[in-house]
């Protein structure tokens, strides 16, 4: 050691003192002006030559970082100030080579092997050998070179994040405030200490190198800071508006000006408060506003909702119950100030359910319903609550609840009729809305009876209500008298609505009265001829024979003998005992069934229950039509369909007889045409008919209909199938098994239903004449029925004969001509379709002259005092239309009695004139649809331009012969502009009709064909801008216009993505319950390759507008795209967590089908099944799904217990399990 030190000293003395020596730990790089003759570093210190030690610290500071960073601070730890030149240089040391040893050589070889492994690993990962970390970084934070982008995406990922469970601390961005004063230079040592202190903080990635104190620290997402954030006393900085968070309903804030920042301070105030401070502040604010505006129900609802938010932060149950009591007191106080507010009452009743037991909550429900018996909304919520309570559910109890609801609302309607309000015929009047709500409750009850298994009763209820409301005799009767008269009709065995030979109650009553008069006349004549009084007798009419008593014979001796024989026979029946051999136990033993055996011995396996459920479904599909009771002596029953009686005993058929007592409590009268149309349309939709959209999808009628479905209608199923095929175009579509679940009706049952619908709609057209929606549904039902009955060629329209017969009855029904022509075009008969349209449009010119002829014929019956009021309207209409013949005819009239016929003729003519735009638009749209599917598209487009030119130019229609001239096109364009301009006042009121809708669509189509596609789209957008958003969302016609707009977007794919996406998202926000909204979003996302936005929209919609439609389309998207199990599972769970969607049978069935047959998770399917029947105990179909899909999971004893529960809940079971057991014994 001495020698070594001496050697070192000699070497040191021999060197030049001015030559800089390399330091062992150089903090700063050597000066660049060093001599090239300087000796290099020794081999021992070569490993210290790392870029981390030679990093240029001057790059950390943007300006003034030259030599200032190399200067030490003026005041260090020493007290004396020494000049820099007088300071001695820092000592330097050289490494002493160690003697070689075996251990060091082994360590060297081991380190070399480790280095080679690291090198190979870096090569595999794409990192060069010995490349520093700086070389892999594109740009450091303090570098002078400005990066191209402010951020980069790490696409490779770091596998160490999974291994260590956290991010690498050097990969996490650190943010800190930096304020070094206004000096141009920066003190390096201050910066150095600041950087080292920052490096020591938040080192939660390297837990092994940290102490306990450092481990307790963490970043903002760590557990420590999360707990601090949850602390109620923790103060956060927030921006609070000066305006109160709860504003009155009529408050409209002004938009913020762009110059507000220049003129004055911002409207937001910075506030530092904790959660407790916020709670106190908002409570004071709600108390103040509720005192100032006690009649504003939104203030009270927000106040109650704030209590839920406070309760969600509490951990103790007692504290949450205290907040619940506070919420109840707030809502009770709100109801005192607003006793008629339905929203407040519903919120209060739902709060009672969270606090009280079911019995106490039921009493409070009944008490409130007695006070508000005319509220349809309260009755609907009450019925849904009763239906979904598994513990209290029984079919008989729900029937009583529906009967009370219908009777209460019917009494409210009768009260308003007696008051004779002048606004009863207004569409927006409370009377019409009450009738529409009553129809919705009646439909809910019919659907309930259908789903619990009483399909015959549901059909009988429809028949009874339609006869009672639509075909009521024109007699002034009280409610009791009307029901007694209807009871006579119901017990008469007459054909009812939908059955062959049905006439309607009114027509049947007239015919029955005529028959009665004829019989009385014949009996009077016979009595006068015989002379004397022959005693009392009973009329024997084949329409009125309800008694089963034997007829009285003319011979008194025969009557006495028969009476004695009947009396003896009845006494023998009473005294006769049943022999032991005929009792039930003996008969069962003869059949080989031991009633003393255990249940497990009766049904040995679950497959028997599976077969039982299939047989039950088959009988449910077949036995939906009620049967009639024959009035003959045998007491047999007869079915309207002959094939229903084959192989059925009389006892089973007798259970399908619907008596008057079964329907009398659910009958009510309807007066408005809107209620009549709603009843008929929902009746058609209930039995699977095809009908145009009759209500807005934002209405409660549509939402409740979708919520109560067990299977998806065919129109929505077609949209789902299109989306699934679009998403799954490159994958196997065999795993989309929900389609078989969503439609289950058999073909034979569907055929009988279409026949039933055809007969019913034909009868309803007498009450609602010239309704093109009903006519379209009628022709569709006829097509389906005839196509399944007859195997005819596809080119022949099966509904042609029916359409021609309807046109023979009413040749002036032009819309029927349009519907008939569209059906012919669907079968490819374009020539016949064009001929029908041409005939209808050419006949419009002959109609005014026909009315002139009628008026001239009635001239001799006219009276001057009866003509004045109606004559003014008719004359002005004729004058405005420049019809000289009609005008001159009225000028020459002097007297007559034409009031009734003349007014009807005028209204008829007016309706025909208003329907002209709709007929023109149908014709042009048919040609455009033909052009897209045909090679000769140019000729079809020219035909469409010709048709629309006649409409816009207001010229006489002529069949197409040549292309329209530019003058005609210019005149038509100007005419369309004037027509749309005249529609502005109508659109502003939101009362747009079908005729106005047809004009807008025709103008848009005309601009697309003659100008360009962008101009045509602007026509529809301009029409939307005429209406306020609130009225737009509640208008049926505007929703149909939006659907047509989406259809045009699908047909012409020429717009950029931003415009199309904005349109579709606005439509989804306006009509969130329309299936076309989600179909358009999915189609646009795949057209423009932005499918990543679809899930975000579905998540947003699930929070804001939860609906069954949204869930179905999200499932079609995820299943079609082979989405993950967890994503689909999350969709189901989030949807079923909603209070409304939890009562959807369709969602539960889809969930069960997915887990059982797609995910193949039978244990999860079992749990879901029990949750489903607890939430929806009324759905017999849902119970039977468990028998079919879980027969391998549930034991025979469990399935037997499930059937017993179904019987206890009073669900209708048509098949006995012993029938299945007997089928097993029959082959042996």
From TrEMBL:
Q: Where is the composition biased (Low complexity)?
A: 21-45
Bias class Basic and acidic residues marks the residues at: 1-15
Q: Does the keyword Nucleus apply?
A: yes
Protein's GO biological process: negative regulation of RNA catabolic process; regulatory ncRNA-mediated heterochromatin formation; RNA processing
Say if the entry is tagged with keyword Hydrolase.
no
Region of interest (Disordered), ranges: 1-47, 59-139, 631-650
Localization terms from the record? Nucleus
Q: Which InterPro entries match?
A: HAT, NRDE-2, TPR-like_helical_dom_sf
Which residue intervals are annotated with compositional bias (Basic residues) in the record?
Answer: 111-122
Among the Pfam families in the record, one is NRDE-2
Please give an example of a GO cellular component term from this record.
catalytic step 2 spliceosome
Grouped into one coarse class, the protein's main location is nucleus
Per UniProt, the keywords (alphabetical) are: Nucleus
Q: Which domain of life is it from?
A: Eukaryota
Q: Which family does it belong to?
A: Belongs to the NRDE2 family.
Question: PANTHER family given for it?
Answer: NUCLEAR EXOSOME REGULATOR NRDE2, TETRATRICOPEPTIDE-LIKE HELICAL
Name by which UniProt lists this protein: Protein NRDE2 homolog
Lineage of source species: Eukaryota, Viridiplantae, Streptophyta, Embryophyta, Tracheophyta
């Amino acid at each position: 050691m001495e020698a070594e030190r001496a050697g070192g000293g000699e070497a040191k003395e021999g060197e030049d003192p001015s030559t800089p020596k390399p330091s062992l730990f150089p903090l700063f790089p050597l000066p660049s002006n060093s001599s090239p003759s300087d000796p290099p570093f020794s081999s021992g210190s070569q490993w210290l030559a790392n870029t981390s030690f030679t990093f240029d610290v001057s790059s950390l500071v943007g300006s003034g970082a030259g030599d200032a960073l190399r200067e030490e601070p003026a005041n260090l730890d020493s007290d004396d100030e020494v000049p820099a030149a007088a300071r001695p240089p820092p000592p330097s040391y050289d490494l002493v080579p160690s003697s070689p040893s075996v251990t060091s050589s082994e360590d060297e070889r081991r380190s070399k092997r480790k280095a080679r492994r690291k090198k190979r690993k870096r090569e595999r990962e794409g990192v060069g050998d010995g490349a520093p970390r700086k070389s892999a970084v594109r740009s450091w934070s303090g570098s002078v070179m400005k990066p191209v982008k402010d951020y980069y995406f790490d696409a490779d990922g770091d596998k160490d994040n999974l291994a260590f469970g956290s991010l690498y601390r050097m990969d996490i961005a650190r943010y800190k405030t930096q304020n070094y004063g206004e000096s141009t230079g920066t003190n390096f040592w201050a910066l150095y200490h600041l950087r080292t202190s920052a490096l020591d903080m938040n080192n939660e990635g390297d837990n092994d190198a940290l102490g306990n104190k450092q481990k307790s620290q963490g970043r903002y997402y760590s557990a420590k800071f999360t707990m601090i954030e949850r602390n109620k006393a923790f103060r956060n900085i927030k921006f609070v508006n000066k305006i109160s968070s709860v504003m009155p309903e009529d408050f409209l804030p002004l938009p913020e000006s762009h110059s507000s920042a220049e003129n004055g301070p911002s409207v937001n105030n910075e506030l530092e408060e904790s959660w407790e401070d916020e709670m106190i502040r908002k409570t004071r604010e709600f108390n103040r506003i509720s005192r100032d505006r006690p009649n504003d129900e939104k203030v009270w609802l927000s106040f109650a909702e704030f209590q839920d938010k406070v309760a969600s932060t509490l951990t103790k149950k007692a504290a949450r119950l205290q907040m619940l009591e506070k919420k109840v007191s707030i809502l009770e106080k709100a109801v005192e100030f607003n006793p008629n507010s339905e929203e407040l009452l519903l919120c209060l009743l739902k709060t009672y359910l969270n606090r009280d037991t079911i019995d106490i909550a039921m009493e409070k429900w009944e008490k409130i319903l007695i006070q508000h018996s005319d509220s349809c909304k309260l009755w609907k919520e009450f019925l849904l609550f009763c239906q979904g309570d598994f513990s209290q559910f029984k079919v008989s109890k729900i029937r009583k609840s529906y009967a009370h609801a219908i009777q209460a609302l019917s009494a409210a309607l009768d009260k308003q009729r007696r008051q004779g309000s002048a606004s009863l015929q207004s569409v927006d009047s409370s009377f019409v809305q009450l009738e529409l709500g009553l129809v919705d409750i009646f439909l809910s009850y019919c659907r309930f009876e259908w789903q619990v298994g009483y399909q015959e009763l549901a059909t009988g209820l429809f028949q009874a209500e339609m006869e009672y409301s639509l075909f009521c005799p024109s007699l002034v009767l009280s409610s009791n008298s009307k029901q007694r008269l209807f009871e006579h009709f119901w017990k008469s065995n007459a054909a009812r609505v939908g059955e062959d030979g049905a006439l309607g109650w009114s027509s049947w009553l007239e015919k029955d009265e005529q028959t009665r008069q004829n019989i009385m006349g014949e009996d009077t004549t016979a009595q006068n001829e015989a002379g004397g009084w022959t005693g009392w007798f009973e009329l024997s009419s084949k329409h009125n024979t309800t008694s089963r008593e034997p007829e009285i014979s003319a011979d008194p001796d025969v009557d006495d003998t028969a009476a004695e024989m009947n009396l003896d026979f009845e006494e023998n029946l009473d005294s006769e005992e049943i022999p032991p051999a005929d009792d039930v136990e003996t008969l069962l033993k003869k059949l080989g069934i031991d009633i003393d055996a255990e249940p497990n011995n009766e049904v040995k396996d679950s497959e028997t229950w599976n077969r039982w459920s299939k047989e039950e479904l088959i009988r449910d599909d077949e036995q939906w039509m009620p049967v009639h009771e024959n009035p003959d002596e045998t007491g047999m029953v007869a079915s309207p369909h002959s094939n229903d009686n084959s192989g059925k005993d009389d006892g089973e058929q007798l259970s399908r007889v619907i008596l008057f007592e079964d329907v009398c409590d659910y009958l009510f009268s309807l007066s408005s045409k809107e209620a009549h149309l709603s009843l008929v349309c929902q009746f058609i939709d209930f039995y699977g008919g095809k009908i145009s959209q009759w209500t807005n999808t934002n209405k409660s009628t549509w939402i409740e209909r979708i919520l109560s479905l067990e299977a998806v209608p065919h129109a929505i199923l077609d949209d789902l199938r299109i989306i699934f095929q679009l998403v799954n175009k490159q994958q196997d579509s065999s795993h989309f098994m929900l389609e078989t679940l969503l439609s289950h009706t058999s073909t034979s049952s569907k055929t009988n239903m279409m026949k039933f619908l055809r007969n019913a709609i034909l009868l309803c057209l007498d009450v609602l004449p010239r309704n093109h929606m009903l006519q379209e549904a009628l022709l569709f039902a006829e097509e389906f029925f005839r196509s399944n009955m007859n195997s005819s060629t596809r080119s022949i329209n099966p509904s042609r004969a029916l359409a021609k017969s309807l046109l023979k009855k009413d040749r002036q029904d032009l819309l029927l001509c349009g519907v008939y022509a569209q059906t012919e075009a669907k079968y490819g008969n374009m020539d016949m379709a064009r001929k029908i349209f041409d005939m209808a449009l050419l006949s419009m010119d002959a109609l005014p002259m026909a009315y002139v002829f009628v008026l001239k014929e009635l001239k001799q019956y006219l009276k001057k005092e009866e003509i004045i009021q109606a004559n003014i309207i008719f004359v002005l209409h004729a004058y405005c239309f420049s019809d000289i013949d009609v005008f001159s005819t009225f000028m020459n009239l002097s007297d007559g009695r034409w009031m009734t016929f003349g007014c009807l003729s005028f209204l008829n003519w007016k309706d025909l004139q208003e329907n002209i735009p709709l007929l023109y638009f149908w014709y042009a749209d048919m040609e455009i649809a033909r052009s897209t599917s045909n090679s000769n598209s140019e000729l079809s487009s020219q035909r469409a331009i010709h048709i629309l030119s006649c409409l816009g130019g207001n010229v006489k229609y002529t069949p197409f012969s040549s292309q329209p001239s530019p003058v005609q096109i210019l005149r038509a364009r100007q005419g369309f502009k004037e027509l749309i301009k005249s529609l502005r006042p109508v659109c502003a009121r939101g009362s747009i009709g079908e005729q106005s809708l047809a004009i807008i669509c025709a103008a848009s189509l005309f601009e697309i064909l003659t100008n360009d596609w962008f101009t045509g789209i602007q026509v529809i957008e301009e029409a939307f801008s005429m209406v306020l958003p609130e009225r737009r969302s509640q208008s049926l016609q505007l929703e149909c216009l939006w659907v047509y707009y989406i259809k045009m977007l699908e047909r012409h794919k020429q717009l950029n993505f931003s415009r199309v996406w904005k349109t579709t998202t606005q439509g989804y926000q306006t009509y969130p319950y329309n299936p076309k909204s989600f179909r358009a979003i999915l189609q646009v996302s795949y057209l423009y390759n932005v499918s990543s936005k679809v899930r975000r929209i579905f998540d947003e919609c699930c929070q804001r507008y939860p609906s069954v439609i949204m869930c179905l389309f999200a499932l079609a998207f995820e299943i079609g795209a082979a989405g993950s199990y967890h994503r689909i599972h999350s969709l189901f769970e989030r949807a079923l967590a909603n209070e409304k969607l939890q009562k959807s049978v369709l969602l539960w069935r889809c969930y069960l089908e997915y887990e059982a047959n797609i995910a193949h998770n039978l244990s999860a399917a079992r749990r879901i099944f029990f949750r489903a029947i607890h939430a929806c105990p009324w759905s017999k179909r849902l119970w039977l799904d468990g028998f079919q899909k879980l027969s391998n999971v549930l034991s025979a004893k469990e399935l037997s217990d499930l059937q017993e529960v179904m019987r206890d809940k009073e669900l209708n079971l048509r098949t006995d399990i012993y029938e299945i057991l007997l089928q097993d014994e029959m082959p042996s």
